[in-house]
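Why do we care about 3D structure at all? Because function follows from shape, and shape follows, mostly, from sequence. That is the central idea of this module. The next example makes it concrete: a single protein chain, its amino acid sequence, and then its structure expressed as tokens.
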Amino acid sequence: RWQLVHATHALPAEIEAVAARGAGIVICPTTEANLGDGVPDLPRWLAAGVPVAVGSDSQVGRDWREELRWLDYAQRLVLRRRNVAADPAHQPSTAARLFEAAREAGGRAAGFARWGLEVGARADLLLPDPADLQGVDPGHALDALVFSGPAAPFARVLVAGRWVR
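And the structure:
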């Protein structure tokens, strides 16, 4: 049940040890960028099968889309290539792979026994405004949401099973 927060400067052997023990990591991309602390080896963490959640531990930002965007953009800058987090064989969409990894690992990091759309799990939903996704292929809707501007393009919001907007 261990969750290593930041894990920015982990060495390859440390990543393998974390994977072997079934621990997860919580990467805080906007915090790391704001502090100038560095960039984690995301491709190695993903390849090792370590659960990768995103979070924030500062006032800099707490928007999940921004965290995923910074996570991907930092990789692009350091490695000088695009789609570092994409997995063409299984999930060619960078945003979808990062979102799903963060969703799965985030529930675990938060201590939820069940997470996602299943009976008995906490129900939190964001319904995008269809007008903000006009002309976007449905298979790339998550990419459009993550890699678009900072506006909140959500028409409805459900928190713990109750509509709040």
